[in-house]
Design brief:
Number of strands: 7
Shape: elongated
Helix content: 25-40%
Number of helices: 2
CATH architecture: Sandwich
Radius of gyration: 29 Å
CATH class: Mainly Beta
Largest sheet: 4 strands, antiparallel
Strand content: 35-45%
Distance between the termini: 111 Å
CATH topology: Immunoglobulin-like
Number of domains: 1
């Protein structure tokens, strides 16, 4: 008669194998979750930025002193599943001109303002108005421009625009900047200057 000895695997090895499977499933599950979330965030940010509108229907400007003013509507559509928070718009205006009396090029900042539009709920949009009044303008320099406009040529108003907001529970900052855009490219049939 032949005796067969059956070796039982120790409990330790069984538990180790079970722990390895759990770790593997958790790793694959977390990787899949991170992958899906990153695709969702990428899609949401890309589509939101493609639906950013400035101006979004309304635009007005009048740079004549003593009460210069600029207004325009801003639109942003949040197509994602997370709230867009801390939506800020920073606008800066420069004037650039060539002075024919001293044959020199000049550039001066005449306006700066940052406005916060709050947050945008998921799958919704915002249409707000940016308003820049005389308190944000360098009115003394604008008066200088208007008083000496006969000695200036090639006058350009250049706008710098920066959009910023936070996405996906405030963890992903998004900043988009446009620098030195000629204000004349924005059509405005009701604007002065």
């Amino acid at each position: 008669m032949i005796n067969v000895i059956v070796l039982n695997k120790p409990k330790f090895y069984v538990q180790l194998r079970r722990a390895n499977k759990i770790i593997l499933y958790l790793t694959v599950g977390l990787f899949t979750l991170i992958f899906v979330i990153s695709l969702s965030v990428n899609y949401s940010i890309t589509t939101s930025l493609s639906r950013l509108r400035l101006p979004n229907g309304y635009y007005y400007r009048d740079f004549s002193p003593p009460s210069p003013r600029i207004e325009f509507s801003v639109g942003l559509q949040n197509n994602g599943i997370s709230r867009v928070s801390n939506f800020n718009l920073y606008i800066s205006l420069d004037i650039s001109y060539f002075n024919i009396t001293d044959l020199s090029h000049h550039r001066h900042n005449i306006f700066k303002k940052q406005q916060n539009f709050g947050s945008i709920a998921p799958l919704s949009g915002i249409n707000a108005t940016f308003i820049g009044e005389d308190a944000y303008f360098d009115c003394s320099y604008l008066e200088h421009i208007f008083n000496h406009s006969d000695t200036m040529v090639d006058i350009y108003f250049l706008i710098n625009i920066t959009f910023s907001y936070r996405y996906f529970f405030g963890t992903i900052p998004v900043d988009l900047s446009f620098k030195n855009l000629d204000l004349a490219i924005i059509e405005c049939p009701t604007c002065m200057l």
